[in-house]
Each structure stands twice: as C-alpha cells, then as structure tokens.
Design a protein that fits this description.
The chain is of the alpha+beta class. It is 19% helix and 27% strand. The N terminus is likely disordered.
Length: 201
Amino acid sequence: MAVTKYTIKRTGKISHNSANQPSTIKSCYEWVGELMAAVIAVVLVFTFLLRVVTVSGLSMYPNYHDGDRLVISSSYGGALEQGDVVVLVNVLPEPIIKRVIATENQEVDIDFDTGTVYIDGEALDETQFGLQNGITQDTATSLEKTQFPVTVPPGHIFVLGDNRPVSEDSRYVDVGMVDVKNVLGKAEFRLFPFDRFGLVE
C-alpha cells in the first residue's frame, strides 16, 4: 500500500500573514486612491460640465413642470439648435428655462391672429416639441413687445416658453434676443419626478 507523506512547515500562519501583509495594505491604498479619484472626477463633472437645476414656475408647461429636476450640460459645443431647452442667466433677475426657436441670422415673425411662428418665412411645426400649432397668441400684458419680423443677431438666440400665455420670453424687450454667453446649459436629462425620469425632449 502506498503511503502519502505530508510535511507541515512550522512557520504556519504567522509567516503566511507576514508575507501577505504589505500586499494587503497596498491593495487597500489602491482601492482608496481609486475611490478618491472617482469622487474628484464626479465633483469636477458636476461643477464644470453638468449641473442639476430645479424648474420654477409654469412657463414651460406641459413639457416641464414646477419642481422638475433637470441635469443641464454646459459642454454642448456652443452650437445650439432649434428645439433645444436651455437655462438662461443674467437675462431676468432669476434664471429662466426656455426653448430655442431660432438661432443667429434667422428671421422670426409671428402672426398673432393665427398664433403661428414663422422662421425664415416657413411656418414652425411646434408638434415636434410636443405642442399644438397656433398657440402663440397675443397676450394682455404691460411688457414692451418685440417688433416683428426680427432677425436674430450673430451670437444670439430667440427663445419662447412652451406655455405661451404665461411665458416672458423673446416676444418681449426685457428678454429679447439672448446672447449665447447667458446660456448656463442645455437640458439633457430629467431626474425628478421619477415617473418621467429620462432624457428630455
């Protein structure tokens, strides 16, 4: 019958733990370092590239409600397009959220009788924004109104709120043509409420 011999080294666990201790400490430091790098990266992203903002008011209803929380990006390449939803600062006393309707060198006209917005002579199809056509009616307000037709200057945008009856936007001189330098960011994602969580339209 074959007999198998087992040899037990007396160094045992103490020797084993001593040998692995530096490796374990090194792994711990590496893990902490990676965690700190990830936290710093997240902080930098949310400080310089992404921000979370809360919608205040009803000027963008029905697409955006009071209290909605949105992630906006300031790294959109500086090129804004018709339909983009942007947060603007230094236009009115408080930041405002509006939709880009026209960009530089485009001509904007509004037929308040039919509620139709015209861009470069073409009627704007607002159903692409989840809205009805013919919603831009004249409103009873003491605000000084923009004279139409108007051409958007270079480096500026023309904006409207989705809820036209209550929105203070480029139809009024107080807002007018907005310098793109006043764009804090472009809406990218809705965080809250959770039942509408996801990419924005």
